[in-house]
Specification:
CATH superfamily of the largest domain: Type I PLP-dependent aspartate aminotransferase-like (Major domain)
Number of strands: 13
Helix content: 40-55%
CATH class of the largest domain: Alpha Beta
Mean pLDDT: 96
Shape: globular
Number of domains: 2
Strand content: 5-15%
Number of helices: 12
Radius of gyration: 21 Å
Largest sheet: 7 strands, mixed
Bound molecules: pyridoxal-5'-phosphate
Structural class: alpha/beta
CATH topology of the largest domain: Aspartate Aminotransferase, domain 2
Low-confidence stretches: none
Distance between the termini: 27 Å
Length: 383
């Protein structure tokens, strides 16, 4: 099997598992307990908080643990919007058309059920938002702008270096979903004046079911979950100690070799991308420059998406059509619709990671070329 779907999830790194095991085997205390068992768990959690904080270059107090990227996005959008409106600061939210569903659907709910005013800014055919167009949609009523650091489908990196400081100058909070960007592209929270940022551990070789909301203490947020008051009162619930410890270990591992790993991934990506684009009727989707180092996304003419995916699975290549959550669904991906991708081609996402080798990408190119040829010879697999 050749696993080229690291944007969907990544394997748990062995060192991360090793860090988690003691907290699954014997250190079972509740980190909120004051006794010895609680203290051991507390130390594990606080060490993880420091590891994540160091990786993001923020104070540890800004790091809140959640159940994943989805919860971090929900808490950021709902929490910041509610607090701002309650303070009488306004009720307008700006986001982009290519956000993850955790952002887009939260914003849609804030509009439909909570009476917020929402502007969804389109992106160019290259999958990058025009910063001026986004900034032009900000009004005196705007309390929150959410722009992902990098897109999970077509891998485009968004211009937060321009957007962030311009929003800060107007006193508007920026949230960014950095789930895909973390460890793969620079995240300069101070320079970009990011108010809130979401991460998900399973996208950087950590465990599933744990994430991070880095929330500046200057940004008020109403909790979504009420209860025991953990995590600065923003995220109640007994902490997932093994998961959090794994998240911290994975953040440290990712940050440690990030530049070298990005360079290695870029070489693999280019081999994959050049090899596939050499096939007749195959073209790269998204931007060739503002692009994550691990992401290849191609349009394959003359093939049906689901048929090609099945053909690739049969020969042991794990890829994805658009976003994993949408695969097999009748509705086309909102990201592909936003960039105006051709509706009658297969759109394939291949994403490399820590475990991907040069041999993997060479074999994948050959297997995909053969599968495309076979499928086209058989009429493309259209239903
Ligand atoms: C995977 C992903 C999420 C959701 O994270 P989970 O931890 O799986 O809930 C959110 N945003 C982006 C960009 C993602 O890729």
């Amino acid at each position: 099997m050749i696993y080229l779907d690291h944007a969907a999830t990544t394997p748990l790194a062995p060192d991360v598992l090793a860090a988690m095991l003691p907290f699954m085997e014997h250190d079972h205390g509740n980190p909120s307990s004051v006794h010895r068992a609680g203290r051991v768990a507390r130390e594990g959690v606080e060490r993880a908080r420091e590891q994540v904080a160091a990786a993001l270059d923020v104070p540890p107090l800004d790091v809140l643990f959640t159940s994943g990227g989805t919860e971090a996005d929900n808490q950021a959008l709902k929490g910041i919007a509610w607090a701002a409106r309650a303070a009488g600061r306004g009720a307008h939210i700006v986001t982009t058309a290519i956000e993850h569903h955790a952002v887009l659907d939260s914003v849609a709910w804030l509009r439909a059920a909570q009476g917020f005013d929402v502007t969804v800014v389109p992106v160019g055919a290259d999958g990058v938002v025009d910063p001026q167009r986004l900034l032009d949609s900000v009004t005196d009523d705007t309390v929150l702008v959410s722009v992902m650091a990098a897109n999970n489908e077509v891998g485009t990196i968004q211009p937060l270096d321009v957007i962030g400081p311009a929003l800060a100058a107007r006193g508007v909070c920026l949230h960014t979903d950095a789930v895909q960007a973390f460890g793969r592209a620079p995240l300069l929270l101070d320079e970009w004046q990011v108010g809130a940022l979401s991460l998900s551990a399973h996208k950087f070789n950590g465990p599933k079911g744990v994430g991070v909301l880095a929330l500046r203490r200057t940004v008020p947020a109403t909790p979504v979950l009420h209860g025991g008051g953990q995590e600065r009162g923003v995220r109640s619930g007994t902490l997932n100690t093994p998961g959090i410890v794994g998240c911290g270990a994975a953040a440290e591992l990712t940050a440690r070799g990030a530049a070298a790993e990005a360079a290695r991934l870029r070489t693999l990506r280019d081999t994959l991308s050049d090899g596939l684009c050499a096939i007749d009727g195959v073209e790269l989707n998204g931007s060739s420059t503002a692009r994550l180092p691990h992401n290849v996304h191609v349009a394959v003419q003359g093939c049906d998406g689901d048929a090609l995916m099945t053909a690739l699975d049969t020969v042991g290549v794990c890829a994805s059509t658009g976003s994993a959550c949408q695969s097999g669904a009748a509705a086309p991906s909102h990201v592909l619709a936003a960039i105006g991708a051709a509706p009658d081609c297969a759109h394939v996402r291949l994403t490399c990671g820590r475990t991907t080798t040069a041999d993997d990408v060479d074999r994948a190119v050959a297997l995909i070329a053969e599968a495309v040829k076979r499928l086209r010879d058989a009429g493309g697999g259209y239903v």
